[in-house]
């Protein structure tokens, strides 16, 4: 029974494919799968925008949207209708073709990244051996679209936003990818399905082998998550669209549905990054303890995904925006060395075969690196009275 | 250490998030159309015309003196004086505004019209929900739209309304007392005139009766004459309240 519920979507798909001629079966499989994923994540996008607005409102002791539908949960439908019916303004001096293509070029690779995410046992749209590589290759091409949008608008703010976005995304791409290498080293495969299966509990074990449960896995997970925040252009790394400085950044000159597409791409990118974090570190669709295996695998995946999305929202409601130099310092002076350090640590962990010896070695190394790098990043800053050389009552004591 | 601050921050927002579901005092939002903050007494929006009683057509305090029209800085008031008169609250015949328009799209809520009005006829309203589909006609308020009963004024400005109401009651009482005194004096004079010879007596009392149209009084019998003189005498005393009837000769 539990197995049936676990595989219910797989069986449904199989039933559908069995009804059609063999010639069109792959097409039907692809269309139904992609349609289901797009519909599901589109709906999740809508609900996330509402939950984010309500959640952040509560963090600020406000009420948030509560007018449209029950408890305001249909707000996203109203917003969608609004953006669909709004006038689509294109600046006269804009490069019309590039301006038109940019939102599509942003959304397409983001949607492509969902192909390799395993949503449950036997539930992956495209089972490829290099799934992780595909994910990063597709995800990295969003930078081009961001710059297309910023450049073609011919607006100083949008260009500044695009420059910021490029600098930030390329800087954080490095720790983003490097932090996953340790997982690949341990799992021995680039296939996302294989990575998830390597984290499942072996027969007889009560605890799953999630990468999060190892010292290097925890460190890599945090690095991956921070880099994912930056890749998704979300607070505290929302410099590319900082409202108070450059209004909306690279999509300032977009209106109506194109604006909504940018918004949607940003959120879908966040979902994809969260899904990949779940896949790599939180054991994908596996249960944390073997005793909970009876819960369907897709529920585990989406539960973890929603928890990570909630974390994204929580952090957005908490942190102020970084300064540009702080952003760069953090990426190059803190995250990159730490990500590089994780690689030899994982190698040693693998050589020691994990266990208490692994913990004994890895934990102090990583903790020391964290403290030292952190001190190097922020510790040297001394707070002192500012000296005004040409104004005021003279040299301060 | 790096990362401590963000943990503290997350704890703070987390506390707010959970606390806002349990502690109603945290949520300070007033959900406007359903909940309203009581307005301050000094809050003002646009002027309205006060009328006594329930019928605006009868009780309007405005006498179309047009002072407010002349004083209004953005000139948003337009008044047309009536051809005929009707009695005010003291019984004296007064003009009334045949047309009284305020263009509230022009009005700047300066309250000068209220300050110059000698009749307490125009006051500032607190109604701020004035949105309309027609920005020209919909914002040009006529006499009937502007008229609000005195009870409305008492409700929005209780202190000022109480002060005005006592002053007006005093005036009315004084006027009634004066009218009564006048009527008594007139009745006495009429009685004296009736008692004396009709042609030879040219007393101050008869002269006093002249402006109020009580000229034929001496020829008639005392009873009906005094009865008819009452309203007329009452009206005659108002414009120059301190002056004696004899002073008008």
Key phrases:
heterodimer; A: 397 residues; mainly alpha; 15 helices; globular; B: 249 residues; alpha+beta; 3-stranded mixed beta sheet; 3-stranded antiparallel beta sheet; 9 helices; 8 strands; disordered C terminus
Describe this structure in words.
- The complex is a heterodimer of chains A (about 400) and B (about 250).
- Helix content of chain A is about 65%, strand content about 0%.
- Chain A is an all-alpha fold and about 400 residues long.
- In chain A, helix 5 (about 95-110) packs parallel to helix 12 and helix 7 (about 140-150) packs antiparallel against helix 8.
- Chain A is globular, with a radius of gyration of 23 Å.
- Chain B contains nine helices and eight strands.
- Chain B is about 40% helix and about 10% strand.
- Chain B is α+β, with helices and mostly antiparallel strands and about 250 residues long.
- Chain B has helices at about 5-20, 55-60, 65-70, 110-115, 145, 150-155, 160-195, 205-210, 220-235, and strands spanning about 45-50, 75-80, 85, 95, 95-105, 120-125, 140, 145-150.
- In chain B, strand 3 and strand 4 (about 95) form a beta hairpin.
- Classes of the chains: A mainly alpha (about 400), B alpha+beta (about 250).
- At the A-B interface, helix 3 and helix 15 of A face helix 1 of B.
SSE inventory with pairings:
The complex is a heterodimer of chains A (397) and B (249).
Chain A lengths: L1 H5 L1 H12 L5 H35 L15 H11 L10 H17 L18 H10 L1 H11 L3 H32 L4 H7 L16 H17 L11 H4 L9 H26 L15 H20 L7 H29 L2 H25 L18
Chain B lengths: L3 H19 L24 E5 L4 H4 L7 H5 L5 E5 L4 E2 L5 E2 L2 E7 L8 H5 L5 E3 L15 E2 L1 H4 E3 H7 L1 H38 L8 H6 L12 H16 L12
Parallel strand pairs in B: 1-8
Antiparallel strand pairs in B: 1-6, 2-5, 3-4, 5-7
Helix pairs in contact in B: 6-7, 7-9
Most extensive chain interface and residues per partner: A-B, 20 and 19 residues
What Rg of chain B do the Cα atoms give? 29 Å
The first-to-last residue Cα distance of chain B is 101 Å
Helix content of chain A: 55-70%
Task: Determine the mean pLDDT of chain A.
Answer: 86
* Alpha plus pi helix count of chain A: 15
Structural class of chain B: alpha+beta
How many runs of DSSP E, i.e. beta strands of chain B? 8
Tell me the major beta sheet of chain A.
Answer: none
H-E string of chain A: HHHHHHHHHHHHHHH
